[in-house]
Amino acid sequence: MPTLIEKCIASPKPGVRGKCLELILLFVELESLDSVVAEIIPFLTHKQPKVISGSIHAITECIKEFGLTDKAAIKTVVKAIPMAFQHADKVVRCEGTNLTLEVYQWIGAAINPFLETLKPIQVYSILLPIYV
Q1: Cβ neighbourhood burial of 106 (10 Å; 0-12, 13-18, 19+)
Q2: Mean pLDDT computed over 18-34
Q3: Nearest-5° angle of CA 47, CA 15, CA 18?
Q4: What is the pLDDT of residues 84-106, one digit of tens each?
Q5: H-type helices in the chain, by residue range?
Q6: What is the rounded CA–CA span in Å between residue 108 and residue 90?
Q7: Is the domain 2-131 a CATH 1.25.10.10 member?
Q8: pTM for this entry
Q9: Gap between the terminal Cα atoms of the chain
Q10: Alpha carbon distance 70, 90 (integer Å)
Q11: 68 within 8 A of 103, measured Cβ to Cβ
C-alpha cells in the first residue's frame, strides 16, 4: 500500500490516479476503513503536497463509499483533520475542508471538539457551508 500511495496517487496522469483510488477502495472493501486509513495517515506528513492532497482525497472517497460508523475509524480519520489545515499548500487545505465536511455528515456536531485546535477563521470557513 505505501508504494501505491507514494507513486500513483500523485501521478500526473488522471487514469493512474483513478486506478489508484479504485485499488484503495478495494483494500477498504477487503479489510476495513480503519486499517486502510491508518496506512494512509503517515503520508499526510510527506514533503510533496500532491501526495498529501491525494491521500486526503482518498480518505474522503473511502468515507463517501463506505461510511464512517466504526468508532476506531472515526478516531483514526479525525487525527487527519488538523494535519491537513496546518499545511501551507492551498490544495491540501481544500482537501482537508472536503474531508471535514464529509466527516461532519457522518458524525455531526461530535466533530466540534476536534476542530478546537484549528484557528477560528478556519472553523468558520469549514462550518459556513453547513449552516448556509
Answers
A1: middle
A2: 92
A3: 70
A4: 888 899 999 999 999 999 998 89
A5: 2-8, 14-30, 33-40, 49-66, 71-85, 90-107, 112-115, 120-131
A6: 25
A7: yes
A8: 0.91
A9: 39
A10: 30
A11: yes
